[in-house]
Design goal:
The complex is a heterodimer of chains A (151) and B (114). Chain A is an alpha+beta fold and 151 residues long. Helix content of chain A is 34%, strand content 29%. In chain A, a hairpin with a 3-residue loop joins strand 2 (63-72) and strand 3 (76-85). In chain A, helix 2 packs antiparallel against helix 5. Chain B has a single domain, classed as Udp-n-acetylmuramoylalanyl-d-glutamate--2,6- Diaminopimelate Ligase, Chain: A, domain 1 (3-Layer(aba) Sandwich). In chain B, helix 3 (55-62) runs parallel beside helix 4. Classes of the chains: A alpha+beta (151), B alpha/beta (114).
Chain lengths: 151, 114
């Protein structure tokens, strides 16, 4: 790894436009590129790519807009996503694999299978999800760099 | 085995990413649910799907797949072609249905477990 103590931590902020499927995945691609350039282990980058993609897709599918903050440090990577949108009625239910409120349009694109949030949970070391209906959703997750293997 | 071998042996049409056919194929994955593919595919896979929209390129690129194989004579959206070229992802098509494509991939020694 080519990182030095002085450069870390650093932050990057990305805006996500709800409903814009054309550029879906572009933010997760940028996050992946940054982590690659920083020389993080492949397994850490792969887990981050999955979690960030799912988080990005959730904003695109269900919110008007959102902000994704990436924190890069020596020991861990953290992503915080805040969106303004319909929110989630029952967070525990939303975490259940297979539960989805996606409409037909989203499902036709191959999203909305109710796997996104549980995928994030699986590949991250810590995950927090809170939501206020008709206002928005707050999601944060952390991946420890030292513990690069799937937990 | 390289992507270009599969193109020849399965008679696939190369729609985009023709300069990336030297990629080594590590195995195969089939799926039309993008979250499932994100979770369970791995780098170097050839991905058989009937999804044709540009998001498949984002998934393939994030997972560093060797190629996408559109089954059942599906044609990629124009935006998908553009993104595939940009990201250097081989986008292949075949008139054969997904099941038959997978059977032929297996015959060529491509495995679903790696």
């Amino acid at each position: 790894m080519n990182q030095t103590e002085e450069r870390y931590p650093f932050y990057r902020t990305f805006q996500i436009e709800g409903g814009n499927f054309t550029n879906a995945g572009s933010i997760s691609s940028q996050v992946k590129r940054i982590l690659k350039e920083e020389g993080f282990p492949g397994q850490v980058i792969r887990r981050m790519a999955i979690a960030t993609f799912e988080a990005e897709m959730n904003v695109i599918c269900y919110a008007r807009w959102g902000i994704l903050n990436l924190l890069v440090s020596n020991d861990f990577l953290k992503v915080v996503v805040d969106d303004e949108g319909v929110g989630i009625q029952d967070v525990n239910l939303a975490m259940k694999e297979g539960f989805s409120t996606a409409d037909e349009r989203i499902r036709e694109l191959g999203f909305g299978a109710g796997m996104g949030l549980s995928n994030i949970k699986k590949v991250t070391d810590e995950m927090v999800l809170t939501s206020v209906v008709n206002q928005g959703t707050h999601l944060e997750f952390t991946i420890n760099v030292k513990n690069g293997d799937f937990s | 085995m390289k992507v270009e071998w599969l193109v020849k042996s399965l008679g696939l049409e190369v729609k985009a990413g023709g300069n990336q056919l030297h990629q080594e194929v590590t195995g195969g994955y089939v799926g039309d649910l993008l979250s499932d593919v994100m979770a369970h595919s791995t780098s170097g896979n050839v991905w058989v799907t009937i999804q044709t929209h540009p998001n498949i390129i984002a998934v393939a690129s994030l997972k560093e797949m060797a190629a996408i194989l559109l089954a059942g004579g599906r044609e990629p959206d124009p935006e998908t072609l553009k993104k595939a070229e940009e990201e250097g992802i081989p986008l292949l098509t075949s008139p054969l249905p997904a099941f038959e494509l997978v059977r032929r991939l297996c015959q060529e020694g491509i495995s679903g477990i790696w």
